[in-house]
Amino acid sequence: MSPQILREIVAKLVEKGIDDEIVEAFVFNVGKFALQIPGVYETTKLNKIDPHDNMFLAAAYESKADYLVSYDKKSLLPLKHFQGTQILSPHLFLRVLFSV
After folding, report:
1. What is the per-residue pLDDT across 38-89, written as a single tens digit (0 to 9) for each?
2. How many CA atoms lie within 13 A of 85 on its CB side?
3. Which of 1, 61, 65, 88 has CA atoms 20 to 30 A from the CA of 38?
4. Is 45 helix (H, G, I), strand (E, B) or coil?
5. Do strands 85-88 and 67-69 pair parallel, antiparallel, or not at all (unpaired)?
6. Out of 18-27, 32-41, 59-68, which region has the weakest mean confidence (pLDDT)?
7. Residue 51: predicted pLDDT
8. What residue spans of 1-100 are helical by DSSP H?
9. Is the dihedral of CA 22, 71, 58, 45 positive or negative?
10. Mean pLDDT over residues 25-44, rounded?
11. How far apart are CA 41 and CA 4, in angstroms?
């Protein structure tokens, strides 16, 4: 979890009117369980991709992630791979995860 991604998620939760206590519990649990990365990498702005999605690609690269899981059919899923990270829908990721 990079600081940029955490800020984005919290902003979206607040924007959707999620109760402050739930947001605080989420942030606490992310701090406790998620791999924390500094978020110092940036990706080159890719054509046909939402600029906000670049932070997810940068975090995947920085953390050397095997997988990036997304519902984003517009810009992330069509990439399929980025710098050694496979980009999958949640459904496909679960298939990979449980086929091992």
Report:
1. 888 776 666 667 778 888 999 999 999 999 999 999 889 999 999 999 999 9
2. 21
3. 88
4. coil
5. parallel
6. 32-41
7. 75
8. 3-15, 20-33, 54-62, 90-99
9. negative
10. 86
11. 11
CA 52 to CA 11: how far, in whole Å? 13
pTM equals 0.78
Burial 47-57 (b: 16+ CB within 10 A, else e): eebeeebbbbb
**Half-sphere exposure (CA, 13 Å, Cβ side) for 92?**
11
Cα–Cα distances (Å) from 95 to 41, 86, 99, in that order, read 30, 14, 6
Contacts of 57 (CB under 8 A, 6+ apart): 43, 46, 68, 76, 82, 83, 85
